[in-house]
């Protein structure tokens, strides 16, 4: 106790002789500042990995609507849209709908199956692409992006012809159902085969109804008034 008291007294005397402690930068603050600066520049940290995984999840959720609106904006003429909006639509379609999904699929292709399922940081960064598929079927995410891209371009660019639009949607749904039935990317205990087949059949039925009802809806559309 005497030694601790003498050390505290010596520290207080040194502090009073040099300057007040409120106006003096401590070593702890300097070390913490260096540590915080190091954390800000470390792009391979745990938090950046979680952020990357959340961005991948957001891309998967909004890939279809971004593709639809970008494609539709590109079909508009210069009289209906500005050059800046068309440029942003082209940049969005190329970057978010094509380039980034290709890079993500390439990263999945370059990593081994054991690393994708065993390494925590890789699972957090790329897990939304393959975490509900079985081992060896990680590249099934390319079917998701391809289907979303085809549907988005068809819906966005085919606004002038509803019949052609619905026929292409029907073909895309049939091809997706066949690929899903042949590939079967889900595990044996997941019980997703029957559910996936039922969803594919439901989408095909909806596409067939679109093909049937599109001429009727087009015929019932009110005609424009003639100018006198």
Number of distinct helices? 9
State the helical fraction: over 70%
Question: What is the 3D form?
Answer: flat
Quaternary organization = single chain
Rg over CA atoms: 29 Å
Instruction: Give the helix/strand class.
Output: mainly alpha
How much of the sequence lies in strands comes to under 5%
Number of β-strand runs: 0
Distance between the termini: 107 Å
Average pLDDT works out at 78
> H/E element string?
HHHHHHHHH
Main sheet attributes: strand count, strand direction, barrel closure: none
Which stretches of 5+ consecutive residues score pLDDT under 50?
A: 15-25
Any overview of this molecule?
The protein has a domain at 45-133. The N and C termini lie far apart (107 Å). The radius of gyration is 29 Å and the shape is flat. It is built from nine helices and no strands. With 228 residues, it is an all-alpha fold.
């Amino acid at each position: 106790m005497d030694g601790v008291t003498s050390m505290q007294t010596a520290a207080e005397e040194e502090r009073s002789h040099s300057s007040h402690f409120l106006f003096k930068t401590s070593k702890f603050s300097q070390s913490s500042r260096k540590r915080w600066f190091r954390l800000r520049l470390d792009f391979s940290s745990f938090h950046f990995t979680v952020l990357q995984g959340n961005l991948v999840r957001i891309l998967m959720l909004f890939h279809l609507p971004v593709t639809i609106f970008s494609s539709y904006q590109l079909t508009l003429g210069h009289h209906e849209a500005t050059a800046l909006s068309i440029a942003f639509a082209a940049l969005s379609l190329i970057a978010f709908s094509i380039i980034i999904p290709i890079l993500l699929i390439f990263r999945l292709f370059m990593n081994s199956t054991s690393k994708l399922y065993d390494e925590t940081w890789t699972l957090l960064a790329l897990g939304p692409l393959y975490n509900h598929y079985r081992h060896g079927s990680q590249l099934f995410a390319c079917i998701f992006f391809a289907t979303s891209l085809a549907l988005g371009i068809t819906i966005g660019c085919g606004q002038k012809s509803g019949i052609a639009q619905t026929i292409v949607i029907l073909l895309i749904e049939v091809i997706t159902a066949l690929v899903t039935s042949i590939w079967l990317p889900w595990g044996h205990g997941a019980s997703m085969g029957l559910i996936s087949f039922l969803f594919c059949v439901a989408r095909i039925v909806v596409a067939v109804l679109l093909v049937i009802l599109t001429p009727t809806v087009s015929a019932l559309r009110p005609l424009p008034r003639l100018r006198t």
